[in-house]
Predict the 3D structure of the following.
Amino acid sequence: MNIIRKIAGNQLIVGFFSFIVFWEIIYLFVQTHTIPSPLETFSYFFTVIDVLGFHSLGSILRVLAALSIAILLGIPAGIFLGVNKKANRLFSPFLYYIYPIPKVAFLPVFMLLFGLGNVSKIMLIIWIVVFQMILSVRDGVMRIPVSHFKVMESYSASIKQQYRFLIIPSILPQVFSALRISIGISLASLFFAENYATTYGVGYFIMSAWTKMNYEEMFCGIIVLGFIGLLFFKLLDLLETHLTPWAAK
């Protein structure tokens, strides 16, 4: 286990420095003030770290609130569709139609319904994540072999015990996979949403720097956005290792 952690840590370090090298190559090749050098950007980073921390906290809280609500809504709905064939036949056409639509197109709708503040931005992320969660959980339930249910029934397991010892453990890997997919899309959508009617958030910070043509500041925001995504991914890895030890390789 320690070896795996060391390898993962080394991969993160190697990946980060590979990005820096790639960035330096682009900077030297393009030779434009639009792309600042990594050294100048990291030097500037420490002058705005307090401001960036404030903006980062705002974005993180928005994503956490949205993911929490999406999980609370998506998991029960996915389980319901997975165990109830009639409900699945009834609602699947709607899910298949709505799922491919770019959810950022609904931002004006949410702003009209919920105002220009945090609620509309959180609702947008929920709208993005919840359908991914529902479909992933539903598919996870439907992949459980029928023989597993028959074994539970042969031991006179109650419905509650079937959910606790069979259905929930079976769908957890699908839940984490859905969350990983959703995080990247959520951050991209949050960046878009934070450009409208807000005064804080990493998306607002990046676009504010862009309008001022302060490209070092802009790239500082981009770096932080990447670190936020990395933070969420590492937290998911820790939770998955703790909650699904049987799935660890």
